[in-house]
Design a protein that fits this description.
Blueprint (H helix, E strand, L loop, with lengths): L1 H8 L3 H27 L13 H12 L1 H17 L6 H23 L2 H28 L6 H26 L2 H35 L9 H19 L7 H17 L9 H27 L12 H25 L9 H22 L7 H27 L10
Helix pairs in contact: 2-3, 2-4, 2-5, 2-14, 3-8, 4-6, 4-12, 5-6, 6-7, 7-8, 8-9, 8-11, 9-10, 10-11, 11-12, 12-13, 13-14
């Protein structure tokens, strides 16, 4: 029984890593909802953690949730992109086990001693490095292949390694520089470049497979320009020059909006499995517009009275990052289980619920009169995420420990 279970879970990279990511998506929101409820005295009591909860939450989302799905996806797609050998089982399972152990130790340290969390983050870093090296080897060995998207994602993975290392240094030294670098690198040098590269490569491709008379449009100049804007945003954040972020954010928002239209956002609603990717990408233009508007407000004398708070970041993190991960993970899980590439109505409803979580989270900071209800709305947004993601996990997790229905390996 256990042997068969292990065989199926380890049969392909996405199985173990998506499984762990699904569970982590539940655990981290349970912990966060519990903390919010106690902090705002909605129910329960405020808990003293070994690490400030805001920065623990940021690390858990940036480096302990999204990477499970990113590694599961890249371990699967890199050999296809590069026409190379499949990733060896011991490689992706090593990354998965190290990250699971690291996350477990991080949670344990939150309740007990910080050094336990430091040990956990170190294990996560080793898992990151293992993933980066194996994917980088495929990139180096690839010949006569288009390596541009893979080069972007590999560089971003290296920055992710640096971001995790910086978090360890912050835990050891309490230097805010390392904390700030870890946060900004994780968002702007790690997650954004990877999701931009994946979006640029996969959304037009998937669209061309199901939409009639679809013309693939993915010029590289716009990808390089958007990546430049992303890096510029991160550097300006690190330099504390938030009033100039609009110079990077507004052009990025315009490019994202242009691509949404050009890629056929409205046409994508014909196929729900495709629409989830287009809707997720549409959040990129919305979030960057909010970032740009926030930057312009910072330049004004009355910036202290209204500055959008964390709304731009959560529009990006929940709207674009999380929604894209949910859409891609659903597609990979369905396709690599031998099932027809069709998104069932239940999963579609869960995805719409995810969009509601994003709206509820950013509403108090976009509509000042609603701000008085902010704590409750923050908690509601967390509960919506937790509910939708838990139901998604219940729906898809059994697929990871069962054989493909078409009898094929993997």
């Amino acid at each position: 029984m256990l042997t068969n279970l292990w065989h199926h879970i380890s049969a392909a990279p996405h199985r173990s890593l998506f499984l762990a990511g699904a569970l982590q998506g539940i655990f981290t929101l349970i912990w966060w909802v519990y903390d919010l409820a106690g902090r705002y005295a909605i129910f329960g009591a405020s808990t003293a953690w070994s690490i400030a909860p805001t920065w623990a939450h940021a690390f858990l989302m940036i480096y302990c949730f999204f990477p499970f799905f990113i590694f599961g996806f890249l371990f699967t797609t890199y050999p296809n992109w590069m026409n190379g050998k499949k990733i060896a089982k011991h490689v992706y399972m090593t990354t998965c086990i190290l990250m699971i152990a690291g996350v477990a130790l991080f949670y344990t340290g939150l309740f007990h001693e910080k050094w336990i969390s430091i040990t956990g983050v170190t294990a996560i870093l080793v898992g990151f490095i293992n993933a980066f090296r194996s994917l980088q080897n495929i990139l180096i060995q690839a010949k006569d292949q288009d390596r541009r998207h893979a080069a972007v994602t590999s560089t971003a993975l290296l920055m992710g390694c640096m971001g995790v290392a910086a978090y360890i240094l912050w835990l050891l030294t309490d230097s805010l520089f390392f904390l700030d670098f870890s946060r900004q690198a994780g968002i702007w040098f790690f997650l954004m470049p990877i999701l931009l590269a994946v979006s640029h490569r996969m959304i037009p491709f998937f669209s061309s497979r199901v939409l009639d008379n679809y013309v693939v449009f993915k010029p590289y100049w716009i990808l390089w320009f958007m990546l430049t804007c992303t890096i510029m945003h991160g550097l300006l954040q690190l330099a504390g020059m938030t009033q100039y972020l609009w110079m990077a954010d507004l052009p990025l928002a315009i490019c994202a909006l242009f691509l949404s239209i050009r890629w056929g956002l409205l046409r994508s609603f014909q196929i729900s499995l495709l629409a989830v990717l287009h809707i997720a990408f549409a959040w990129l233009s919305i979030s960057m517009l909010l970032f740009g508007l926030q930057s312009i407000i910072f330049m004004q004398s009355n910036a202290s009275t209204w500055h959008l708070g964390m709304a731009p970041l959560h529009a990006l993190a929940i709207g674009y990052f999380a929604s894209m991960v949910l859409g891609m993970a659903s597609r990979v899980t369905i396709g690599h289980s031998g099932r027809p590439l069709v998104l069932d109505h239940f999963t579609w409803q869960l995805f719409i619920g995810f969009q509601a979580a994003a709206v509820v989270r950013i509403l108090p900071e976009l509509v000042p009169p609603v701000s008085q209800f902010a704590p409750v709305l923050y908690l509601i947004a967390g509960l919506i995420w937790l509910t939708c993601f838990s139901l998604w996990a219940i729906r898809y997790i059994p697929v990871f420990w069962r054989p493909r229905i078409d009898g094929k390996p993997g």
